[in-house]
Design a protein that fits this description.
2 domains, 3 strands, 2 helices, alpha+beta
Amino acid sequence: MGCGSGMTCWRRLRDWTRAGVWHRLHTVVLERLEAAGKIDWSRASLDSASVPAKGGGEDAGPNPDDRGKIGSKRHLLG
């Protein structure tokens, strides 16, 4: 990839993730596809999963599916 060692690549990916680069890139791509009329929402599917969040966090809360243990729900639209 031309970015140095594996550790250098890992650090860059970590830093870009923390800086919100991937979220912003995803948002821009979706906005441009939508503006070009390239997204057909009638063919989208949705899935979700409850995942444990033992360390907590500001987005975690009691999970009604797992006896109130701390967790989070993830959703995927594809």
